[in-house]
User: Fold this.
Amino acid sequence: MSKTDARKIDALDQWCLRMLLGIRWYQFVRNDDVRKLTKQPKLTAIIQLRRLTLFGHIMRMDDNADAKRILLAPLQQTGEDNWVVPASHGSAPSNRI
Assistant:
């Protein structure tokens, strides 16, 4: 997640909290005060915690698990911002029914 995306997510989260509390745009209430009132952490902090939890879950999986193989697959850069898993990595997909 980029810093820009994180700022947008936190701004939306803050706006939603203000709407739930009925705080109007012209009322002067600090963002920290809204957080203290709701006892809610920033949404990006929750996302980060859940991403780390998922990473730990995947790393404890069997080495042959698809999720772990995908996570640990080497990446190749195809352009300035484009990264892909090379086609030669892993086995060919099976035609399961």
